[in-house]
Amino acid sequence: MSRGRILLLSAPDNRLEAMLGALKRKGFEIEAGIGRAALSLLEAQPFDAALLDLEQPDGIEICEELKEESTDLPVIVLTRRGTLEMAIRSMRAGAYDYLFHPLRIEAVSIAIDRAVQHRRMRRELRKLRRVVIGPTGFEGLIGTSSAMQELYELLEQVAESEASVLVCGETGVGKELVAQAIHQKSGRREGPFIAVNCAAVPGTLLESELFGHVRGAFTDARSSRAGLFAQASGGTLFFDEIGEMPMSLQPKLLRALQQRSARPVGSDREVAFDIRVIAATNLDLEAAIENRQFRRDLYFRLNVIQVDVPPLRSRSNDILILARHFLRHAATRAKKSAEGLSQEAARRLIEYPWPGNVRELENSMERAVALCRGQEVTLAMLPIRIRDYRASHVLLTAEVPEHLVPMSVIEERYIRRVLVAVGGKRGEAARILGFDRKTLYRKLIRYGIEK
């Protein structure tokens, strides 16, 4: 895959062939031309960045003309005259960066990568300024990435059904919003949508919360109360964090779903209900079944249709759209004028892996608005974990033996990255890595990452 299309403008006697060959091997597409004649190449095809050799006549003037031809094209100037005066002249002419001879391939490669990313970021920000951000996609869900488009297509089909749905995804991806979207698009939209968090209600109270109780059923039951099954009749009942439901209550829940009726606590008669059930989990329920923490028959009753909500890191095209949406909402509530992101802030938002997903992004924008005193959110206003984030990569193409690492280091880093990618689900991680569960468990202990 190309890392960028680069235009080189150099003098006829310039000796940059070795550098060009090295850059091509690193994945860059290079088109070279001599002096002003190379400007005509801009009309034939788009470029992501330009390298301009100042060791040619009228180098600064060519830089100015290059910026006039393509205002958003970042230009990196190459010069042997490593003086402050030359750097200032280059920047005034519109150069994005400058490098001094002798040129090191790694330095040139890094400078080009920065320039390409800078151009793409500016284009993305301009596109966002032309778009009025609002509820898009599917019943209020926001996102235009291919992952979200696939999700919208699935939800269209799911909404038409009455089958039970299991929404799976990491913490913070918006599983309840997906459940609400299904309800709003379904034939039950006029009925109630009632949500219960199975992890937030103590197990001793959850039975009464779901099925209701009669007067005198237990201490403090001074009057009868309808449960959530009855209250949601005609609509949708949403079980959030279903994997946290106590094992002791799971058989009664299964029977209620099968019989479409439930017996309130302390009562001797069944109360019928008409609901659609949507459940959500961030746990690996199949692993929980193996560990005897979740009933297999209940799992299949709930998981008639499974909807997987993609994590934010797999839909990077949506990060700035969501950030701008949350920024505007937070600014409106705080009565502030913040409405945009600086280029550095936007770039860091895209680089960050968002382990807390959409919820973390929303909280970060609220924090930024609270600190913002102008119209633009800057890098300094983002949480420190985002400001200081640096992507970790395993170096596989080192040129000297001293830079190479043992296989165990590569294995440990890759296992960690897979675990992050699957939200800590060991079963899925073992499948991707090609291990059985026991082998993965031993390696987690070996590398000190069993938790």
Principal-axes shape call: elongated
Number of helices: 19
Instruction: Spell out the CATH superfamily of the largest domain.
Output: P-loop containing nucleotide triphosphate hydrolases
Give the neighbour order of strands across the main sheet: 2-1-3-4-5
**Helix amount:** 40-55%
What is the count of distinct domains? Answer: 4
Residue-averaged pLDDT: 83
Beta-strand share of residues: 5-15%
Rg, Å, rounded: 29 Å
Number of E-state strands = 16
Show unreliable segments.
129-135
Q: What is the annotated CATH architecture of the largest domain?
A: 3-Layer(aba) Sandwich
For this structure, the CATH topology of the largest domain is: Rossmann fold
The chain-level structural class is: alpha/beta
CATH class of the largest domain: Alpha Beta
Termini separation comes to 36 Å
Describe the sheet with the most strands: 5 strands, parallel
Top keywords for this entry?
451 residues, alpha/beta, Rossmann fold, Helicase, Ruva Protein, domain 3
What does this protein look like?
The protein has 451 residues and is α/β, with parallel strands linked by helices. The chain has helices spanning 17-25, 41-44, 59-69, 84-92, 105-130, 146-159, 175-185, 203-211, 228-231, 250-259, 285-290, 296-302, 319-334, 343-351, 357-371, 384-387, 407-421, 426-433, 437-446; strands spanning 4-10, 28-34, 49-53, 75-79, 97-100, 165-168, 193-197, 212-213, 225-226, 236-240, 261-262, 271-272, 276-281, 305-308, 340-341, 376-377. The strands form five sheets. The chain has a five-stranded parallel β-sheet with strand order 2-1-3-4-5, sandwiched between helices. The two termini are 36 Å apart.
